[in-house]
Amino acid sequence: MKAVALTRYLPVTDPACFVDVDLPKPVPTGRDILVAVKAVSVNPVDTKLRKSKGADVVENPPRVLGFDAAGVVAAVGPDVRLFAVGDEVYYSGDITRSGANAEFQLVDERIVGRKPASLGFAQAAALPLTTITAYECFFDRLGIDRDGADAGQTMLIIGAGGGVGSIGIQLAKAAGLVVIATASRPETTAWVTALGADHVIDHRGDMVAQIRALGMHYVDHIAVFNDMRHWEAAVELIRPQGGIVSIDNTDVPLPMAAMKTKAASLHWEFMFARAMFQTPDMIAQHHLLSYVADEIDAGRLRTTLDIVLTPINAATLRKAHAMIETGTAKGKIVLEQF
What we know:
Blueprint: E1 2-8, E2 19-22, E3 32-42, H1 44-50, E4 58-63, E5 69-76, E6 88-91, E7 104-108, E8 112-114, H2 121-125, H3 128-141, E9 154-158, H4 163-174, E10 178-182, H5 186-194, E11 199-201, H6 207-213, E12 219-224, H7 231-237, E13 238-246, H8 257-262, E14 265-268, H9 273-276, H10 284-297, E15 305-309, H11 314-325, E16 332-336
Parallel strand pairs: 9-10, 9-12, 10-11, 12-13, 13-14, 15-16
Antiparallel strand pairs: 1-2, 1-4, 3-5, 3-7, 3-16, 5-6, 6-8
Pfam family, one: ADH_zinc_N_2
Main location: cytoplasm
Keywords: Cytoplasm, NADP, RNA-binding
Protein backbone atom coordinates (compact mmCIF):
# COMPACT_ATOMS: atom_id res chain seq x y z
CA MET A 1 0.00 0.00 0.00
CA LYS A 2 1.05 3.61 -0.51
CA ALA A 3 2.08 5.61 2.57
CA VAL A 4 3.85 8.82 3.52
CA ALA A 5 6.48 8.25 6.19
CA LEU A 6 9.62 9.60 7.77
CA THR A 7 12.97 7.89 8.03
CA ARG A 8 14.66 10.72 9.95
CA TYR A 9 13.39 13.54 12.17
CA LEU A 10 14.02 16.60 10.02
CA PRO A 11 12.89 20.22 9.85
CA VAL A 12 10.07 20.99 7.44
CA THR A 13 12.50 22.97 5.29
CA ASP A 14 14.26 19.72 4.37
CA PRO A 15 12.60 18.04 1.34
CA ALA A 16 13.53 14.66 2.84
CA CYS A 17 11.41 15.19 5.97
CA PHE A 18 8.78 12.94 4.37
CA VAL A 19 9.15 10.17 1.83
CA ASP A 20 6.65 8.22 -0.28
CA VAL A 21 6.90 4.51 0.52
CA ASP A 22 5.17 1.19 -0.16
CA LEU A 23 4.33 -0.85 2.93
CA PRO A 24 2.57 -4.19 3.51
CA LYS A 25 -1.20 -3.93 3.82
CA PRO A 26 -2.12 -4.72 7.46
CA VAL A 27 -4.58 -7.43 8.53
CA PRO A 28 -7.11 -6.76 11.32
CA THR A 29 -7.31 -8.94 14.44
CA GLY A 30 -9.32 -8.64 17.65
CA ARG A 31 -11.37 -5.44 17.79
CA ASP A 32 -9.42 -3.73 15.00
CA ILE A 33 -10.99 -2.53 11.80
CA LEU A 34 -9.00 -1.97 8.61
CA VAL A 35 -9.89 1.40 7.11
CA ALA A 36 -9.31 2.40 3.50
CA VAL A 37 -8.24 5.98 4.15
CA LYS A 38 -9.83 8.64 1.93
CA ALA A 39 -8.74 11.87 3.68
CA VAL A 40 -6.48 12.93 6.55
CA SER A 41 -5.95 16.18 8.41
CA VAL A 42 -2.84 17.64 9.96
CA ASN A 43 -2.59 18.73 13.60
CA PRO A 44 0.13 20.49 15.60
CA VAL A 45 0.92 17.17 17.30
CA ASP A 46 1.95 15.80 13.90
CA THR A 47 4.57 18.53 13.52
CA LYS A 48 5.82 17.95 17.06
CA LEU A 49 6.28 14.23 16.42
CA ARG A 50 8.06 14.89 13.12
CA LYS A 51 10.80 16.74 15.00
CA SER A 52 10.60 14.86 18.31
CA LYS A 53 13.98 13.13 17.94
CA GLY A 54 17.40 14.08 16.59
CA ALA A 55 18.12 14.16 12.86
CA ASP A 56 20.61 11.33 13.34
CA VAL A 57 17.86 8.92 14.47
CA VAL A 58 16.89 6.58 11.62
CA GLU A 59 13.54 4.80 11.47
CA ASN A 60 13.64 1.39 9.79
CA PRO A 61 10.98 0.50 8.82
CA PRO A 62 9.82 4.05 8.05
CA ARG A 63 7.46 5.62 10.57
CA VAL A 64 3.98 6.68 9.45
CA LEU A 65 2.48 9.65 11.29
CA GLY A 66 -1.02 11.11 11.17
CA PHE A 67 -4.10 10.79 13.36
CA ASP A 68 -7.24 12.32 11.89
CA ALA A 69 -8.77 10.26 9.11
CA ALA A 70 -12.01 9.45 7.34
CA GLY A 71 -12.54 6.41 5.17
CA VAL A 72 -14.35 3.16 4.52
CA VAL A 73 -14.12 -0.07 6.52
CA ALA A 74 -12.32 -2.58 4.28
CA ALA A 75 -12.07 -5.52 6.71
CA VAL A 76 -12.81 -6.29 10.36
CA GLY A 77 -11.24 -8.37 13.10
CA PRO A 78 -13.10 -11.35 14.58
CA ASP A 79 -14.19 -9.48 17.72
CA VAL A 80 -15.55 -6.36 16.00
CA ARG A 81 -19.16 -5.57 16.88
CA LEU A 82 -19.66 -1.89 16.04
CA PHE A 83 -18.86 -1.77 12.32
CA ALA A 84 -19.11 -3.80 9.13
CA VAL A 85 -17.28 -3.77 5.81
CA GLY A 86 -18.44 -0.80 3.75
CA ASP A 87 -19.23 1.50 6.69
CA GLU A 88 -17.98 5.06 6.37
CA VAL A 89 -16.07 6.14 9.49
CA TYR A 90 -13.99 8.91 11.01
CA TYR A 91 -11.53 8.75 13.91
CA SER A 92 -8.28 10.03 15.37
CA GLY A 93 -6.28 6.88 15.96
CA ASP A 94 -3.80 5.89 18.64
CA ILE A 95 -0.48 7.61 19.30
CA THR A 96 1.18 4.25 20.03
CA ARG A 97 0.35 2.76 16.60
CA SER A 98 1.14 3.35 12.94
CA GLY A 99 -0.56 6.49 11.66
CA ALA A 100 -3.20 7.55 9.18
CA ASN A 101 -0.97 8.80 6.35
CA ALA A 102 -1.39 5.49 4.51
CA GLU A 103 -3.88 3.90 2.14
CA PHE A 104 -4.96 1.47 4.87
CA GLN A 105 -4.84 1.75 8.64
CA LEU A 106 -5.70 -0.49 11.57
CA VAL A 107 -7.67 1.16 14.36
CA ASP A 108 -9.56 -0.14 17.39
CA GLU A 109 -13.29 0.16 16.77
CA ARG A 110 -13.83 1.65 20.24
CA ILE A 111 -12.23 4.95 19.20
CA VAL A 112 -14.02 5.18 15.83
CA GLY A 113 -17.30 6.90 14.99
CA ARG A 114 -19.62 6.67 12.02
CA LYS A 115 -18.86 9.43 9.53
CA PRO A 116 -21.47 12.19 9.40
CA ALA A 117 -23.63 11.27 6.41
CA SER A 118 -23.96 14.91 5.37
CA LEU A 119 -20.19 15.43 5.07
CA GLY A 120 -17.66 14.37 2.48
CA PHE A 121 -14.52 12.57 3.56
CA ALA A 122 -12.39 15.73 3.61
CA GLN A 123 -14.93 17.61 5.73
CA ALA A 124 -15.18 14.69 8.15
CA ALA A 125 -11.41 14.19 8.42
CA ALA A 126 -11.09 17.74 9.76
CA LEU A 127 -12.97 16.88 12.93
CA PRO A 128 -11.98 13.88 15.07
CA LEU A 129 -8.86 14.87 17.06
CA THR A 130 -10.00 18.39 17.78
CA THR A 131 -13.58 17.33 18.47
CA ILE A 132 -12.53 14.64 20.93
CA THR A 133 -10.15 17.09 22.60
CA ALA A 134 -12.69 19.89 23.00
CA TYR A 135 -15.49 17.52 24.03
CA GLU A 136 -13.34 15.86 26.71
CA CYS A 137 -12.10 19.28 27.91
CA PHE A 138 -15.57 20.63 28.46
CA PHE A 139 -17.72 17.67 29.39
CA ASP A 140 -15.29 15.15 30.92
CA ARG A 141 -12.65 17.38 32.53
CA LEU A 142 -14.60 20.53 33.50
CA GLY A 143 -17.83 18.61 34.11
CA ILE A 144 -20.05 20.95 32.09
CA ASP A 145 -23.43 19.46 31.21
CA ARG A 146 -23.54 18.74 27.48
CA ASP A 147 -27.31 19.03 27.32
CA GLY A 148 -27.73 22.54 28.69
CA ALA A 149 -28.11 22.27 32.47
CA ASP A 150 -25.29 24.84 32.79
CA ALA A 151 -26.69 27.21 30.17
CA GLY A 152 -25.75 30.84 30.76
CA GLN A 153 -22.38 30.11 32.30
CA THR A 154 -19.35 31.75 30.70
CA MET A 155 -16.51 30.02 28.84
CA LEU A 156 -13.28 31.79 27.88
CA ILE A 157 -11.50 29.96 25.05
CA ILE A 158 -7.91 31.14 24.72
CA GLY A 159 -6.61 30.41 21.23
CA ALA A 160 -10.05 29.93 19.73
CA GLY A 161 -9.14 30.21 16.06
CA GLY A 162 -7.31 26.90 15.76
CA GLY A 163 -8.75 23.46 15.18
CA VAL A 164 -9.67 22.69 18.81
CA GLY A 165 -11.08 26.16 19.41
CA SER A 166 -13.10 26.07 16.21
CA ILE A 167 -15.11 23.03 17.25
CA GLY A 168 -14.90 24.04 20.92
CA ILE A 169 -16.84 27.25 20.26
CA GLN A 170 -19.61 25.22 18.67
CA LEU A 171 -19.76 22.59 21.41
CA ALA A 172 -19.84 25.26 24.12
CA LYS A 173 -22.60 27.17 22.35
CA ALA A 174 -24.59 23.96 21.86
CA ALA A 175 -24.38 23.44 25.62
CA GLY A 176 -25.83 26.92 26.16
CA LEU A 177 -22.67 28.66 27.34
CA VAL A 178 -21.72 32.28 26.71
CA VAL A 179 -18.46 32.04 24.74
CA ILE A 180 -15.65 34.59 24.91
CA ALA A 181 -13.14 33.65 22.22
CA THR A 182 -9.65 35.06 21.82
CA ALA A 183 -8.19 35.91 18.42
CA SER A 184 -5.36 38.22 17.42
CA ARG A 185 -5.86 38.80 13.67
CA PRO A 186 -8.79 40.13 11.63
CA GLU A 187 -9.22 36.83 9.76
CA THR A 188 -9.33 34.73 12.94
CA THR A 189 -11.65 37.25 14.59
CA ALA A 190 -14.03 36.88 11.65
CA TRP A 191 -13.65 33.08 11.79
CA VAL A 192 -14.52 32.68 15.49
CA THR A 193 -17.40 35.15 15.16
CA ALA A 194 -18.84 33.12 12.29
CA LEU A 195 -18.59 29.99 14.42
CA GLY A 196 -20.78 31.58 17.09
CA ALA A 197 -18.55 33.30 19.65
CA ASP A 198 -20.54 35.85 21.68
CA HIS A 199 -17.52 38.07 22.35
CA VAL A 200 -13.99 38.23 20.91
CA ILE A 201 -10.95 39.59 22.72
CA ASP A 202 -7.26 39.77 21.77
CA HIS A 203 -4.99 37.37 23.69
CA ARG A 204 -2.00 39.53 22.74
CA GLY A 205 -3.47 42.36 24.78
CA ASP A 206 -4.59 42.72 28.40
CA MET A 207 -7.19 39.95 28.63
CA VAL A 208 -8.19 40.83 32.18
CA ALA A 209 -8.98 44.42 31.22
CA GLN A 210 -10.87 43.28 28.12
CA ILE A 211 -13.01 40.83 30.09
CA ARG A 212 -13.76 43.45 32.72
CA ALA A 213 -14.73 45.88 29.93
CA LEU A 214 -17.38 43.33 28.92
CA GLY A 215 -18.89 43.70 32.39
CA MET A 216 -17.56 40.37 33.67
CA HIS A 217 -15.35 40.23 36.73
CA TYR A 218 -14.80 36.46 36.53
CA VAL A 219 -15.61 33.71 34.03
CA ASP A 220 -16.94 30.29 35.00
CA HIS A 221 -14.66 28.15 32.82
CA ILE A 222 -11.42 28.69 30.90
CA ALA A 223 -9.98 26.51 28.13
CA VAL A 224 -6.35 27.13 27.15
CA PHE A 225 -6.02 25.96 23.56
CA ASN A 226 -2.69 27.58 22.67
CA ASP A 227 -0.07 27.64 25.44
CA MET A 228 0.31 28.49 29.11
CA ARG A 229 1.91 31.92 28.74
CA HIS A 230 -1.53 33.28 29.65
CA TRP A 231 -1.58 31.43 32.98
CA GLU A 232 -1.54 34.46 35.26
CA ALA A 233 -4.40 36.12 33.39
CA ALA A 234 -6.37 32.87 33.48
CA VAL A 235 -5.90 32.55 37.24
CA GLU A 236 -7.00 36.15 37.73
CA LEU A 237 -10.11 35.63 35.61
CA ILE A 238 -11.37 32.24 36.80
CA ARG A 239 -14.19 32.46 39.28
CA PRO A 240 -13.84 30.96 42.76
CA GLN A 241 -14.43 27.20 42.49
CA GLY A 242 -14.18 27.44 38.71
CA GLY A 243 -12.01 25.29 36.46
CA ILE A 244 -9.23 25.76 33.91
CA VAL A 245 -8.44 23.07 31.33
CA SER A 246 -5.30 23.04 29.18
CA ILE A 247 -4.02 21.01 26.25
CA ASP A 248 -0.55 22.55 26.42
CA ASN A 249 2.53 20.40 26.94
CA THR A 250 4.28 22.73 29.35
CA ASP A 251 7.29 22.82 31.64
CA VAL A 252 6.62 26.45 32.56
CA PRO A 253 6.32 27.05 36.34
CA LEU A 254 2.67 27.64 37.20
CA PRO A 255 2.16 29.62 40.43
CA MET A 256 -0.72 27.98 42.29
CA ALA A 257 -1.32 30.17 45.36
CA ALA A 258 -4.23 32.09 43.84
CA MET A 259 -5.74 28.85 42.53
CA LYS A 260 -5.73 27.48 46.06
CA THR A 261 -7.27 30.66 47.48
CA LYS A 262 -10.08 30.40 44.93
CA ALA A 263 -10.44 26.62 45.39
CA ALA A 264 -10.18 26.50 41.60
CA SER A 265 -9.14 23.42 39.65
CA LEU A 266 -6.67 22.77 36.82
CA HIS A 267 -7.30 19.90 34.40
CA TRP A 268 -5.04 18.43 31.73
CA GLU A 269 -6.49 17.02 28.54
CA PHE A 270 -4.75 14.45 26.32
CA MET A 271 -7.16 12.80 23.94
CA PHE A 272 -4.84 9.85 23.31
CA ALA A 273 -4.89 8.78 26.98
CA ARG A 274 -7.87 6.43 26.66
CA ALA A 275 -6.38 4.42 23.78
CA MET A 276 -2.81 4.60 25.10
CA PHE A 277 -3.75 3.12 28.46
CA GLN A 278 -6.68 1.00 27.25
CA THR A 279 -8.89 2.60 29.89
CA PRO A 280 -12.15 0.83 30.81
CA ASP A 281 -14.12 3.72 29.28
CA MET A 282 -12.19 3.71 26.00
CA ILE A 283 -15.43 3.26 24.05
CA ALA A 284 -16.49 6.74 25.18
CA GLN A 285 -14.70 8.13 22.13
CA HIS A 286 -16.85 5.99 19.84
CA HIS A 287 -19.94 7.34 21.54
CA LEU A 288 -18.89 10.98 21.44
CA LEU A 289 -17.89 10.85 17.75
CA SER A 290 -21.23 9.26 16.92
CA TYR A 291 -23.03 11.95 18.95
CA VAL A 292 -21.17 14.69 17.05
CA ALA A 293 -22.03 13.00 13.74
CA ASP A 294 -25.71 13.16 14.69
CA GLU A 295 -25.37 16.85 15.64
CA ILE A 296 -23.67 17.65 12.33
CA ASP A 297 -26.30 15.79 10.33
CA ALA A 298 -28.98 17.70 12.23
CA GLY A 299 -27.31 21.00 11.28
CA ARG A 300 -26.37 21.99 14.83
CA LEU A 301 -22.59 21.66 14.32
CA ARG A 302 -20.43 22.27 11.25
CA THR A 303 -17.08 21.07 9.96
CA THR A 304 -14.01 23.14 10.79
CA LEU A 305 -12.33 22.44 7.44
CA ASP A 306 -10.50 25.44 6.01
CA ILE A 307 -8.06 24.18 3.33
CA VAL A 308 -7.98 20.99 1.22
CA LEU A 309 -4.73 19.86 -0.44
CA THR A 310 -4.31 17.01 -2.91
CA PRO A 311 -2.97 14.41 -3.30
CA ILE A 312 -1.83 12.63 -0.16
CA ASN A 313 1.91 12.37 -0.77
CA ALA A 314 5.21 13.48 0.75
CA ALA A 315 5.35 16.86 -0.99
CA THR A 316 1.80 17.82 -0.05
CA LEU A 317 2.18 16.66 3.54
CA ARG A 318 5.36 18.69 3.87
CA LYS A 319 3.45 21.74 2.62
CA ALA A 320 0.70 21.17 5.19
CA HIS A 321 3.24 20.83 8.03
CA ALA A 322 4.88 24.09 6.94
CA MET A 323 1.49 25.84 7.05
CA ILE A 324 0.79 24.52 10.55
CA GLU A 325 4.21 25.62 11.79
CA THR A 326 3.52 29.25 10.86
CA GLY A 327 1.14 29.33 13.83
CA THR A 328 -1.40 31.29 11.80
CA ALA A 329 -3.63 28.51 10.47
CA LYS A 330 -7.32 28.73 11.27
CA GLY A 331 -9.59 25.72 11.31
CA LYS A 332 -8.15 22.54 9.76
CA ILE A 333 -5.92 21.62 6.83
CA VAL A 334 -6.94 18.36 5.12
CA LEU A 335 -5.27 16.15 2.49
CA GLU A 336 -7.30 13.80 0.32
CA GLN A 337 -6.79 11.24 -2.47
CA PHE A 338 -3.71 9.04 -2.74
